[in-house]
Specification:
Rossmann fold; 28 strands; single chain; 5-stranded mixed sheet; 3 domains; globular
Length: 657
């Protein structure tokens, strides 16, 4: 059975943890933010004072215990303080994806009944005012950046600076009420509602208690020996459970410093300046970083290219073994040290990853080749498997037991089992209470004994006991010959190549697998520039014959890799096309966390799917797109369809011999 251990009463809520940190780590940095090119820093004592002042300001505005307060903006200390201040005041923060369109925001705020919203700037104010009639409970918007808002009607607007000032001025009036609310908090109180990304429909509000979140933080900090000396870069969406756990829960539990970049555009350079010791990124980040590395090497001199490739090969052979503490010959150790001095060290410094002691990737499967590349450089990169409903942690990879093909063993206090159909189930202290206002969905996901259905198909490796995830259970299908079809497995093989940004594999119920592919505009554009290939748009570049030829090489290389997996070898791609536009969350094709919405894509691109299977060598399509300003438009294109070479079992056997 799952552990029923409780949290120490003095550490069973976020306010109590912040007060502990302000006492025990008073002078240590708690938050940093880069603004106007300069890093600003706040200690735990300073952060606590700011949080308490904001909380008293909330109470003075009429915020009641149990109220919901929406948080809409990018990673900034002020937003983390606003969430913590809500918890100080006994309210419940509800983070919202800042890049959501007005309709998406309206749904979340109306569904949770938010009375207040803390927003970044004029853009978010405008979005919420546009849909104000659909959010009847919303009374006040609290903004951080005043630019552009001077002439607005401030009947429903107030700056966070004013809220904080009010809280400082009314300390004598509100402090007793604040302390009473803090003291009344228990581990069973709701501390956050996080909305899912809505891959298959409307987002669902996941209700998590203090115990769910803080027991998970306690166990995961112990698992990776996280202390107050860590530095983490907070750049992922604040509405995502990963950022909430890493930048809020673990930071408060261990007392380490949360660093906020100046903007999404400066994230990479800010990463270099901070040099985090604890780092999380989704596979897309590592894929994009590898693409940038390879682009830079293609522009380097022949000597540097030769040096790079020579020592990267040594790293791939030696690095993972050194990282896992395995025996390596003296000669290989010496070669690796030389490689570190000439290649790996400068490369890690340039990417900002040189100080990473523990690194994680999750959200979707990462390509094995990409994963091994970073580990070969000496980065202790590991995989975890989790869900919002489990406060992220279901499995983790212990040091020395890291594999590209699995996601580790059950996290501390987590139980995992495989159902009769191959679906993965778990229960843990982090298991969510319910989906807010959705008892039917709650009952479908969590049974009376607390077991949660993940919707993923997987199995435990018999030798290691590590969990291997195949794909989403609903996405795993079969070809007409009965062979298993796992689209995500195929897509990850393709996305290893820097030229390929996204891929959608099709094959369930069909004779063979096909794929629709997005090129990476940065990588392919750089290649085009170096080869004097002119193009005027993404569409024009994607349709270029030499681009198609390069993509075909990647598809056929992926097929050779897929052929090596006995279970999934028949998932090889027989036909493919290169899409005329990038898949986009604003067009409904991806979630806000960049997951493929397969049903929507299948409907939207039905003519393309049909052409991939009817033998056509081209297909015409008109596609609706959404521009940044919200206007709609259409892209028209005739796409080429190509056949790809596949590896037959006989050919594979001959190659092996």
């Amino acid at each position: 059975m799952t552990s029923s251990a409780s949290l120490p009463k003095e550490l069973d809520s976020f306010p109590k943890l912040v007060e502990r940190n302000a006492r025990d780590f008073a002078a240590r940095p708690a938050y940093r933010e880069k603004e106007f090119g300069i890093w600003q820093s706040w200690t735990w004592a300073e952060a606590r004072d700011a949080i308490e002042a904001i909380a008293r300001g909330y109470i003075s505005m009429g915020l009641q215990k149990g109220d919901h307060i929406a948080i809409v903006g990018r990673n900034r200390p002020y937003f983390y303080w606003s969430m913590l201040a809500a918890q100080y005041a006994g309210a419940i923060p509800v983070p919202v994806y800042q890049d959501s369109v007005a309709d998406e925001m309206a749904y979340v705020l109306d569904h949770c009944g938010a009375r207040f919203a803390v927003v970044q700037d004029q853009e978010q104010v405008d979005k919420l005012r546009e849909v104000a009639d659909r959010i009847p409970a919303l009374e006040r918007m609290i903004y951080i950046d005043p630019r552009g808002l001077r002439r607005y009607d401030h009947a429903d607007l107030i700056s966070l600076a004013e809220v904080r000032k009010t809280g400082e001025e009314r300390r004598a009036d509100a402090q007793d009420e604040l302390k009473a609310r803090m003291d009344a908090a228990t581990e069973e109180d709701t501390c956050i509602i996080l909305y899912t990304s809505g891959t298959t429909g409307r987002p669902k509000g996941v209700v998590l208690t203090n115990r769910n979140v803080l027991m998970t933080a306690k166990n995961s900090c112990a698992f990776d020996k996280l202390t107050e000396k860590e530095d983490v870069l907070a750049y992922l969406p604040m509405a995502w459970v990963g950022d909430y756990v890493f930048s809020m829960a673990q930071a408060c539990w261990a007392g380490f410093c949360v660093n906020c970049p100046e903007s999404a555009e400066t994230m990479q350079s800010d990463l270099k300046e901070i040099g985090p010791t604890y780092f999380f990124a989704p596979p897309r980040f590592f894929e994009g970083l590898l693409t940038s590395i390879m682009i830079r090497m293609e522009d380097a001199s022949k000597f540097k290219q030769k040096l790079f490739h020579k020592y990267i090969e040594i790293a791939k052979r030696v690095g993972p073994a050194l990282l896992d503490g395995k025996e390596v010959s003296a000669g290989d150790r010496m070669q690796y040290r030389i490689g570190h001095a000439l290649v790996y060290g400068p490369l890690l410094n340039a990417t900002g990853l040189s100080r990473v002691r523990v690194g994680y990737t999750a959200g979707e499967a990462i390509g094995p080749e990409i994963f091994e590349f970073y580990r070969s450089l000496g980065i202790n990169l590991k995989q975890l498997y989790g869900q919002t409903e489990g406060t992220i942690y279901i499995t983790q990879q212990p040091d020395g037991e890291v594999s590209a093909d699995t996601v580790g063993v059950p996290s501390p206090d987590v139980e995992v089992k495989i159902g009769d159909t191959g679906e993965v189930f778990y229960r843990s202290p982090g298991t969510f209470v319910e989906y807010y206002k959705n008892p039917e969905a709650t009952a479908e996901t969590k049974d009376s004994e607390g077991w949660v259905a993940t919707g993923d198909a997987g199995f435990f490796e018999p030798d290691s006991g590590h969990l291997r995830i195949i794909d989403r259970a609903k996405d795993v299908g079969k070809l007409t010959n009965g062979a298993m079809f796992a689209p995500k497995y195929v897509e990850n093989k393709l996305k290893f190549y820097p030229n390929i940004l996204e891929a959608v594999a099709v094959g369930d119920g069909r004779d063979y697998s096909t794929a629709m592919i997005n090129i990476d505009l940065e990588a392919v554009g750089n290649w085009a520039e170096r080869n004097n290939i002119a193009y005027g748009s993404y569409q024009e570049l994607a349709a270029h014959p030499r681009v198609y030829a390069a993509v075909q090489e990647h598809v056929e290389e992926a097929n050779r890799s897929i052929a090596e997996d006995a279970l999934l070898s028949q998932c090889q791609i027989h036909r493919f096309l290169v899409l005329h536009k990038e898949l986009d969350a604003d067009d409904g094709e991806l979630t806000r966390t960049r997951k493929v919405r397969r049903r929507i894509i299948a409907e939207k691109y039905e003519p393309l799917v049909k052409a991939l299977y009817d033998g056509s060598d081209s297909v015409y399509i008109e596609t609706e797109v959404t521009y940044e300003d919200g206007r709609k438009g259409a892209i028209k294109a005739t796409l080429e369809i190509r056949d790809a070479a596949i590896v037959t079992p006989d050919a594979q056997k001959v190659a092996a011999e």
